[in-house]
Amino acid sequence: MPPEPGRPTRLTVFLADLQGGGAERMMVVIANGMAARGMDVDLVLADVSGPYVKEVADAVRVVDLGTGSVSRALLPLARHLRRRRPDVMLTTLAHTSFVAVLARAAAGVRVPTVVREANTPQAAYPGWVSGRTLLAHRLAPLTYRGADGVIAVSDGVKDALVTVLGVPEGKVATLYNPVVAPELKRLAREDPCHPWFAAGEPPVVLGVGSLTPRKDFATLVRAFARLERPDARLVILGEGEERAALQALVAELGLTGRVDLPGFAQNPFAFMSRAAVFVLSSTLEGLPGALVQALACGCPAVATDCPSGPREVLRDGAVGPLVPVGDVDAMAAAIARVLDDPPDRAALPAAVERYDAGSVLDATCAYLEGMASRGRRPRRPA
User: For residue 139, how many other CB atoms are within 10 A of its CB?
Assistant: First the structure.
C-alpha cells in the first residue's frame, strides 16, 4: 500500500533492550541519525532498560513492548507492525533478528525487514555463544532467508556471510558502523576522572569492551605482565561474566595495583585520548568500533588479526601492529614497540575517516529508503 503523499518514511528499529553493548549503542546512533534525516522512527524494545536509554533522541519514539525478553516479544511486535504499518524494519543480533522475521510473517503486513550483522558467522559455532542464543544462531540461515536485506558492518563480515552461510551476495550490503560521531572530539577532551590518566603519570595500556571470552582480555593481561615496563599500567573498561576470572588472574600474576577494571564507562573516549596504546585482544569481531574510535581519538593501537575487521581498520598493519589471536608474546612485543616508538598521534584520525558517522548514516538512510520503496511497489498478480 503506497504511503500518503508527503508522509515521511516510517522506520521500526527492534531491539531487546539498551544494555551496554556495542550493537545496542550503534542501533541508537542509527535510529537517531534516521530521525535527523526526516524518517518517522519507532525504537521498539522488549524491555526499556540500559545505559543507552538516555542517548535516544527526542525525535525517536520509544515503544515499550513490556515483555521483558525477546522470546516473549513475537506477538506484541506483530501487533505493533499491524498497527503502525512501518515502511521498513531494522534489527540486529541473532535472537532478536529471528524474532523480528517471525513477527513480520505473523503480522501479515508487507514490511521489508533488514537484518544488521555485526559479527562473522563463526559466532554461530559452539564455544562462542551462550546457551540462551545458541538456537537463534543455529537458525541464522533461516533468518537471512526471511530477511529482505542484510547489512554487514565490514567487507570481512560480508564475505563470511556469503561463503560460510550461503547468503546471496546481492542480498548483502556493506555499511560500516557510524562510530566516529561529531561529538567524539568534544567527549575526548573531557576528564576521565581516573588518577592514572592525569598529566605526567606513567603510560597506560587500555582495553575497552564487554568482559566476555570473545574479547579475550585474559591474553591482554598476560601480555601486559610480560612487558618490561614496571611503570606501565593497564586499564580495561567494561563489564561482563569474565570479571571475577580476570580479577583472579590479575592477583595470580602479581599485578594488583597496576591493573584496574573500573567497569563500564559512559565516555570511553576521554580514556582513549590519554592512553599510550589501545589494545584489541578479541578472538572474533565484525567491525571493532572501539578500535576505530581509539584511532579517531589519536590513540596508537595494537590488535589481533581476528576475523573480521581489525585488518581492514589497521590497513593490513600499516596503521598499527596486527598479532595472532591468543599470542601472548607477540602481543607483549607489539605493545612494547608502540610504547617505545609511538606513531604520530595527530595523523591517526585520518586513517578512520571512512567510518565518519555523517557519511555512514547518509548511506544507511539511502539504503533503508531503497528498501522501503520495495515495500511500496504494487504486488504482481499471482
Answer: 18
